[in-house]
Amino acid sequence: TTLLRLLAGILDPSTGTVFLGGVSIKPIRRHLARWVGYLPQDFGLPMDLTAREYLEYYALLYNIGTRAERRLRINLLLDEVGLDANADKKIGGYSGGMRQRAAVARTLLRLPPVIIVDEPTVGLDPRERIRFRNLLGQLAKTRVVLFSTHVVEDVAVACERVIVLARGSMVFDGRPSLLADEAAGRVWVARLNPEEEAHLPEDALIVDRVPETDGASRVRILCEQQPHPGAHPADPTLEDGYLRLVGFRGGKRTE
């Protein structure tokens, strides 16, 4: 969140410089909102206004064109985010996903070429999460969309490029398919009882555990070497690659 606020020009860096298109943000900070739209994780919406009224209010604040131009842009945005059928209903009656889409429409009012979105799918039910991911994919066809997430599925479905940050450093930058490769040869599956789990190597990380009726569990393990004689290699996933990058250093598990 702090990094995204720095990129959006909301915070000043305590050290270093943020560049946009090769230009330092500091001298252009007053004008940055015309190029960068920012949607925070926690955004306030007026529950007693409709989505149309909400957008009309901000369009006036942003001094966007004439009344006819504002009306046309608002109609186009409501259609783009899928709220045209509910545009005249109060936001207080919207679902979480609909509120997210109303906030996105407000972010798009100035037609910024770059959109920064912080944890957009947190708190959404599966159907709304899918719909919002699809919306981000549509928006990315004509502009840059940068969003943060801890939901690996969002990365797999919505992203062309993923950056992984760990302890303040960038540890991966590439296509999502290559992220899984970071765990290649280090993913194992085994059927273990609690005593066997307790004697796994120190660097072994149990990624998934499915209990069985006899007290044992089928476990998915991330480890540099075979963690148990009964463990078999498994194909890595995005989550495995991510966990190896952020949870392991030098073959040792970190908290």
Walkthrough of the structure:
The chain is of the alpha+beta class and 255 residues long. 35% of the residues lie in helices and 21% in strands. It is built from 10 helices and 13 strands. It has a 4-stranded antiparallel beta sheet with strand order 9-10-8-11. Strands 3-4-5 form a 3-stranded parallel beta sheet. Strands 1-2 form a two-stranded antiparallel sheet. A hairpin with a 2-residue loop joins strand 6 and strand 7. The chain starts with a helix and ends with a strand. 29% of the residues are buried.
What characteristics describe this protein?
255 residues, 4-stranded antiparallel beta sheet
Give a quick precis of the structure.
The protein has 255 residues and is of the alpha+beta class. It has helices at 2-7, 25-28, 51-61, 67-80, 96-107, 126-139, 152-158, 176-181, 194-198, 238-247; strands at 19-20, 23-24, 36-39, 114-118, 144-148, 162-166, 169-174, 187-192, 205-211, 217-222, 232-233, 248-249, 252-253.
- For the biggest β-sheet, the strand order reads 9-10-8-11
Give the helix/strand class.
alpha+beta
Number of strands: 13
Percentage of β-strand residues: 15-25%
Shape: elongated
Oligomer: single chain
Number of helices: 10
Report how far the terminal alpha carbons are from each other: 20 Å
**Helix percentage:** 25-40%
What low-confidence regions span 5 or more consecutive residues with pLDDT below 50? 249-255
Give the SSE order as H and E letters: HEEHEHHHEHEHEEHEHEEEHEE
Work out the radius of gyration: 23 Å
Mean pLDDT, nearest integer?
89
How would you characterize the largest beta sheet?
Answer: 4 strands, antiparallel
